[in-house]
């Protein structure tokens, strides 16, 4: 209700109240403080003569009784002993108390959630918690689940806001069945912050199909639901399964149809594992295994170091009369294999190769690894393998390890009469035959596989060669980039890159850092875009595989009925616990305490 003044201004009538029940208006001040003989309709039964309301309201507003009641209300309100003041003071005290209570409850929930643990059981609270007086408040599953959901939403919103601010990003997905045999698709997004690239887990998505189009649709639905721009997607990295990496019907092909700038980069760590697997399968002298060859480094190393001790144990088993015949025969078979010079040579070779494969694989699993650094590691490993062609060196090591100095002779095949007229090939001794058919075959297969894998990561190789490239080479590379990213880069890119190359030669800047750190973004805006796209490229899906460990820990056989929302909330809080620690939860506590302070 407002009063229209002569100058056109409107003044609110705070003293006027409307009752929806009686459909009348009342004067609040006169209702409280007017004497019985002075009470008008507005102070008693209410006023409803809407036709003459402006006239009657103006008369009442200027009446002596109304002014007296208004003065009494103002004087009472100014005193600190009013009921409202006491109520507000008590309400504020209750609010602060519940803020402290909820702060402690929230700290416990954050601590447990960041470690992938579930809330404490009622038995633990009854036995371990000091009960004190009264009843336990806010320890119910409903309140805890509400807090977990709120915290997960704040962490996810923080990640989404970072992605939108960074603009360019790349994705990696992988799937695995949970304890209830529901395939969970993990989504990991990589983007660039001012202090460097980061990889963030965002969500598990249950899937019902494994075709490339079905997997791609799950990812596209998530991107659309979170309001992330699909046109800013610049990279995708999956494993080498056909439904993921298929050139025509794989997930990467479907995503490329929606955004041709989403460069597909095979997982570097998995590619390195496949190199060792292919090298082992090419030679029948080497034992085959379905496990990852990078993970067998410890087993090979243990066998090499305890070679003689293992032989002694096997010999003792074969000579033990109390052992079963089958066990003794198996032990004798292992002894015959380990006493061969071929076994010693291959063991020394694989021990040397897997040692470097293991170290390189560990380095490639770093979430901050860049494409050029990964390529340099693979190229360095390729150079190392090329130096292993010295067969005599490993032959001597094999003799020392196995205690045998003669290679196993291959059985000579009988020659038929009709074959005697044919020209015989060059006959090789056992040492040369093993070198050609086994030793060099393994090394050549490793080198061939590595060259094939490295070629897939050569798109941005010039970024690491800024200092050594000539101006014409830089200009040619810049034109290629400008043609590929025509909507992201301006025509002045070649000149900026030449200028930036000259600056790198004068100052030793760290190329792995974002250009914003060096405060050069304003001077080289297009080079900044190039580096941000380059740094956001996903080179492995190791972060996605790490999320599977959290999945198995959170949703196990004791909690197989867990809902998808709770699984995502707990997994997000556990994996991105650094963000959870820095989330300001005071606004959550205040809003929650305000709703509970009247209880």
From TrEMBL:
Bilayer-crossing regions: none
Gene Ontology MF: a single term: protein dimerization activity
Residue ranges of domain HAT C-terminal dimerisation in the record: 522-578
Annotated DUF4371 domain residues: 140-250
Superkingdom of this protein's organism: Eukaryota
Pfam families hit by this protein: Dimer_Tnp_hAT, DUF4371
UniProt cross-references to SUPFAM superfamilies, sorted A to Z: Ribonuclease H-like (SSF53098)
The name this protein goes by in its record: TTF-type domain-containing protein
Species this chain originates from: Ciona savignyi (Pacific transparent sea squirt)
């Amino acid at each position: 209700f407002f009063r229209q003044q002569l100058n056109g201004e409107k003044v609110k009538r705070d003293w006027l109240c409307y009752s929806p029940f009686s459909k009348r208006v009342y004067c609040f001040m006169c209702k409280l403080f007017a004497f019985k003989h002075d009470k008008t309709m507005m102070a008693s039964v209410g006023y409803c003569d809407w036709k003459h309301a402006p006239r009657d309201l103006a008369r009442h507003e200027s009446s002596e009784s109304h002014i007296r009641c208004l003065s009494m209300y103002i004087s009472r309100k100014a005193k600190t002993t009013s009921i409202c003041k006491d109520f507000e003071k008590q309400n504020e005290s209750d609010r602060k108390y519940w803020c402290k209570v909820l702060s402690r409850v929230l700290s416990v929930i954050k601590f447990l959630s960041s470690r992938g643990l579930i809330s404490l059981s009622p038995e633990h609270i009854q036995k371990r918690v000091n009960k004190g007086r009264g009843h336990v408040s806010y320890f119910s599953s409903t309140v805890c689940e509400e807090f977990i959901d709120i915290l997960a939403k704040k962490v996810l919103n923080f990640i989404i806001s970072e992605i939108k601010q960074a603009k360019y990003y790349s994705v990696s997905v992988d799937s695995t069945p949970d304890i209830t045999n529901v395939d969970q698709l993990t989504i990991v997004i990589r983007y660039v912050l001012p202090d460097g690239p980061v990889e963030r887990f965002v969500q598990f998505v249950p899937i019902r199909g494994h075709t490339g189009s079905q997997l791609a649709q799950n990812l596209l639905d998530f991107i659309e639901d979170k309001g992330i721009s699909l046109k800013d997607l610049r990279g995708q990295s999956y494993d080498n399964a056909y439904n993921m990496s298929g050139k025509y019907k794989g997930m990467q092909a479907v995503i490329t149809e929606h955004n041709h700038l989403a460069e597909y980069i095979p997982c570097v760590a998995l590619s390195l594992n496949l190199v060792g697997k292919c090298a082992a399968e090419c030679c029948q002298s080497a034992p085959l295994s379905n496990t990852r060859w990078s993970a067998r480094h410890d087993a090979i190393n243990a066998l090499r170091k305890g070679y003689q001790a293992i032989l002694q144990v096997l010999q003792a088993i074969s000579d033990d009369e109390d052992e079963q015949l089958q066990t003794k025969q198996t032990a004798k078979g292992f002894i015959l294999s380990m006493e061969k010079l071929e076994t010693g040579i291959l063991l020394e070779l694989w021990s040397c190769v897997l040692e470097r494969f293991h170290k390189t694989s560990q380095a490639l699993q770093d979430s901050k690894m860049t494409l050029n650094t990964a390529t340099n590691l693979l190229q360095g490993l390729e150079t190392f393998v090329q130096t292993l062609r010295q067969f005599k060196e490993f032959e001597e090591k094999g003799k020392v390890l196995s205690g045998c100095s003669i290679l196993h002779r291959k059985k000579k095949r009988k020659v038929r009469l009709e074959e005697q007229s044919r020209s015989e090939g060059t006959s090789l001794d056992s040492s040369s035959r093993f070198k050609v058919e086994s030793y060099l075959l393994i090394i050549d297969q490793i080198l061939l596989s590595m060259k094939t894998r490295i070629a897939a990561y050569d798109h941005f190789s010039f970024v690491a060669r800024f200092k050594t490239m000539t101006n014409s080479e830089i200009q040619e590379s810049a034109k290629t980039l400008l043609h590929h990213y025509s909507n992201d880069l301006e025509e002045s890119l070649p000149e900026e890159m030449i200028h930036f190359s000259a600056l790198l030669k004068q100052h030793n800047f760290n190329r792995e850092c974002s250009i914003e750190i060096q405060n050069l973004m304003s001077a080289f805006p297009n080079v900044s875009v190039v580096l941000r796209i380059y740094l956001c490229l996903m080179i492995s899906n190791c972060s996605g595989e790490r999320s599977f460990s959290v999945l198995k820990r959170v949703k196990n056989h004791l909690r197989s009925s867990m809902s998808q929302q709770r699984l995502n909330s707990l997994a997000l809080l556990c994996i991105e616990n650094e963000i959870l620690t820095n989330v300001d939860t005071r606004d959550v506590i205040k809003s929650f305490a305000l709703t509970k302070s009247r209880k």
